[in-house]
Every structure is written in C-alpha cells, then in structure tokens.
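lol forgot to send this yesterday, sorry. struct tokens for the thing we talked abt
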C-alpha cells in the first residue's frame, strides 16, 4: 500500500488507521455522518455516567472505576476491530516514532486538569448537553488551552528536541514525529506485535477493575406494555462496557472516512483555529485544522455529542419523571461558586493543553494521566469542590 500524508490528529497512540475514499463523495457524506456519529457517541457516553464530575474525580481517587471501565472498553473495541481489519488489507496499522516525553508531560497535564475540572476533553461536550453549569467554564478553559498550545507548540517542540537530542522532531507538526507515515521497520515490530499486547492490557485492566468493583446496573419497574427498547432507553444508566464498546466502534467509520479518529477533543483545536484567524494570526499548528471540510465535520461532531447527551437525559426523565415534575415544582438549580468556576476553567485549560500535547492516548499518556490525577487528588481534598 502506498504511503499517504495525514495530519498529526490521526495518531491513535501507536496505532494508525488509514483508508482511501473519493474526496468528492467524502465532502458530501462527512457532515451528516459526523453529526450522526456525534449523537450516538454523546448518547452512549451520557448513559454510561462516565461524564459525571463526581465520578471522574472519584476515579482519580480510586474510589470508582466507571470512567476507566468506559474508557478501557472503548479502547479495546477500537483497537481490536482495527487489528482484525488490518488482516483484510482494508485498514493499515502502522507504527510511528513518538516522543515519550511529549506523551508523559501531556498526560500529566491532562490528568491534573481532569481532576480540577471534573471533566475531560470528551466528557465536557456530554456535560454541556446535560446542562451542567461547571461545563461552561471547563469548555471556555479548554478553548483557551487549545489556543495557547497552538501558539506555543513550536517552542515546546523545539525545546523538547534539544532535551531529546533527536532529529525526529519536526517543529511544524504537532508532535516529535513526521507527518509522513513511516514503515513498521522503524520499531522492528509488525503491527500485531503492538496491537495485541495493547488489547491484552486493556482486557486485563477491565478484569481487574471489575474484580475490585463489580458493575451494578439499577433497573426501574416499568409497565409491561413497554417494549425492551423502551425500557432500555428509559434506564438511567447502561453498562460501561456496552457504552464503551459503542464509543470505540464509532471510531472505525472515522478511520475510513477521514483517516482520523472522531475525537471530540479535536473540536477545541478547530474552534481555536477560528479564534486565531480572527486575531489575524494563524500558527502552522492550526492550518491543517482549517483544510477542506474538516472544520465542518468536526464542529458537527461536537454539536452531535451535545445533542446526543441531551437526548439521553430526556429519555430517562420522560414519562414517569415528567409526570412527577408536573405535580411538583421543579427544584431550583444549585448555584456554582466563583471558586468552582475558576477550578473548572483552569482544569479545562490544563486538560485540553495536555491532550493536544500528548496528541493521542498511548500507553504512556494513559499511565501519566492516571498517575497525575491520583497525585492531584491526594494533594487537593474533595471538599474543596463543595459549593
């Protein structure tokens, strides 16, 4: 298969999915498909409960594993299917050189920011759809983080090039890598030698978390006249394994369409690119974000996730809950303190800056993210987030 050029955003750890499609047809189908993928992704994410700020912070304190179960299940589904498809020749999985220092520092900022904001670059869109007040400040901070990294990226990459003493660093790219896909011989390993151990590690992590905290799905009594799907839609929470699998499998069409995962965090880069353009300064980092219809489908992906989350919330509150609310006054929303506004905004900036720096969720990024989140949670007590 001929090598192709892709943007740095196509990196998925050490795995890359690459496929070909007619550009004319791609421009026509991308917007509606992106919107639909966003709706499904937001719906599944909201049903998992992994977007709840309290659960995200509890994950970093090792008190709840819902978020990690969803995340690991998504990674396992995506990596497993990509590995299987690579055997058919439909998708190529190539190893690429990456800077572990980029991943470690980026992951550390991501983990600390997640704990402070009670969110993640993906969860913030779900929280917006769920009308969580903190999410507005986390999203604003995330936009600032993406904008800051876009302007500082070249300096950071040049600095790390000196630290690493390597000629692999390309200042005009997002990472210490080249935009040109390289051969698998760079690491001396075939793709399956990397992807299979990754799948095994993810499966092992899921097994361990389930042993430590068995998954409990609470069901509600419903009328016998309701179908299975109606009961399922009205169920407040779904299994994190089911939701994670849905989220992971939704990445597969993205690799075929755009040679890139449908990453909600990339929406911040696209939005920051527009802001930079309005400022009259567009660093090279943002230029690939503005090519063709990429800005359109990315923004539609974010809007779809917000809409999917809103639908998931309403599918639970419909019927019985709406009847209850009609008979009683809806409780006033809890206020948010200036302290929590600041923490959400600062955390949002940190997590998106770190996500853009790490570029993708490689094993190093994940390890650094959870380690930093745990350390941050050990330093900052949970009561600080009380209203």
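and heres what i got for the seq, position by position
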């Amino acid at each position: 298969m001929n090598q192709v050029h892709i943007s740095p955003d196509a990196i998925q750890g050490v795995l890359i999915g690459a496929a070909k499609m007619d550009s004319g047809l791609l421009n026509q189908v991308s917007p509606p498909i992106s919107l639909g993928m966003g709706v499904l992704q937001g719906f599944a994410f909201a049903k998992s409960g992994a977007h709840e700020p309290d659960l995200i912070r509890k994950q970093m304190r090792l008190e709840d594993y819902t978020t990690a179960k969803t995340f690991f299940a998504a990674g396992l589904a995506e990596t497993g299917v990509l590995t299987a498809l690579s055997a058919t020749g439909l998708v190529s999985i190539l190893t690429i050189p990456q800077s572990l220092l980029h991943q470690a520092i980026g992951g550390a900022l991501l983990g600390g920011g997640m704990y402070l904001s009670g969110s993640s670059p993906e969860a913030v869109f779900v929280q917006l759809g769920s009308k969580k007040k903190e999410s507005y400040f986390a999203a604003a901070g995330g936009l600032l983080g993406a904008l800051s990294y876009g302007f500082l990226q070249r300096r950071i990459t040049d600095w790390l090039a000196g630290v690493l003493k390597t000629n692999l660093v390309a200042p005009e790219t997002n990472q210490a890598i080249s935009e040109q896909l390289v051969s698998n011989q760079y690491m001396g390993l075939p793709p399956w030698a990397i992807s299979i151990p990754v799948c095994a590690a993810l499966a092992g992590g899921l097994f361990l978390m389930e042993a430590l905290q068995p998954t409990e799905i609470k069901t509600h009594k419903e009328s016998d006249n309701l179908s299975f799907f109606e009961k399922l839609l009205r169920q407040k929470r779904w299994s994190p394994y089911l939701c994670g699998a849905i989220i992971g499998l939704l990445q597969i069409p993205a690799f075929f369409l755009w040679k890139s995962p449908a990453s909600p965090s990339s929406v911040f880069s696209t939005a920051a690119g527009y802001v930079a353009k309005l400022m009259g300064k567009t660093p090279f980092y943002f230029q690939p974000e503005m090519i063709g219809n990429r800005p359109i489908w990315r923004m539609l992906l974010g809007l779809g996730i917000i809409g999917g989350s809103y639908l998931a919330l309403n599918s639970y509150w419909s019927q019985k809950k709406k009847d209850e609310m009609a008979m009683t006054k809806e409780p006033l929303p809890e206020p948010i303190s200036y302290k929590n506004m600041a923490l959400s905004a600062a955390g949002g900036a940190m997590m998106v800056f770190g996500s853009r720096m790490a570029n993708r969720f490689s094993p190093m990024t994940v390890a650094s993210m959870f380690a930093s989140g745990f350390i941050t949670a050990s330093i900052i007590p949970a009561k600080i987030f009380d209203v």
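The chain has one domain: 9-378. anyway ping me if u want another try
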